[in-house]
Amino acid sequence: MVESGADVAWADTFGSTALHCACTNGHAVCARLLITARASVDQTNKNGATALHVACCDGHAECVELLLAANAAWPDLTRLLCNQPDKNGATALHQASAHGHERCVALLVEATDLRRKCLGKTALEWAREKGHAACAALLQEAEARRAAAREMTEASELKAKAKAADAAMASLLAESALEEARLVRARARARVRSRSRHHT
User: CA-CA distance, 111 to 116, in Å (whole number)?
Assistant: First the structure.
């Protein structure tokens, strides 16, 4: 059908496209053909879910890999897709975590905002609540890595600010020393002029 020119953007009454259906059912070969035919990976159904949401909900990791690879050349687009919420505020990572799909979590964890909440809970909190220990461990490790990275960034920024402050202070001290030297020279010239007047 794709080869005969079928509209890959067509959606049913629920707003689901062929790509949604392929990813819901784990048909990776079909998903690949649709993506190659330029099916939109970020088109949403009436619940605001993308094909990535439904693939993660049902744990179809191969489909998740295909969807992420579609934007591999544009990391910003991949991050947008991973962080796109449905109408309940759930990202694909929330879906994967709440349903215990470890491989999907592993694929999404680096590109998703781990602090984003769905119905008041982060992906880590959903994984813990539903008893998915392996998913929770992956998310906790990712959070620890990001916290360490933030600390390193903050330390570098503080070091740069301190260096800039030191440079500014050094500049002020140099200007102060120059001003003091000018005053000393001015006083010296004034004394010389005063002596000259006395001698005449």
Answer: 12
Give the per-residue pLDDT at 146.
86
pLDDT, tens digit, 9 for 90 and up, residues 87-112: 999 999 999 999 999 999 999 999 99
Q: Which of 10, 85, 93, 89 is nearest to 57 (CA)?
A: 93
Q: What is the pLDDT of residues 187-198, one digit of tens each?
A: 877 776 776 666
- Calculate the average pLDDT of the chain: 88
Report the C-alpha gap between 174 and 184 in whole angstroms: 15
CATH number of 71's domain: 1.25.40.20
Q: DSSP for 82-98, please give it.
A: HT---TTS--HHHHHHH
Q: How far is CA 160 from CA 63, 129, 146, 152, 154, in A?
A: 44, 42, 21, 12, 10
* Count: domains in the chain: 1
Residue 115 in any domain: the answer is yes
Asked, for residue 136, whether it belongs to a domain, the answer is yes
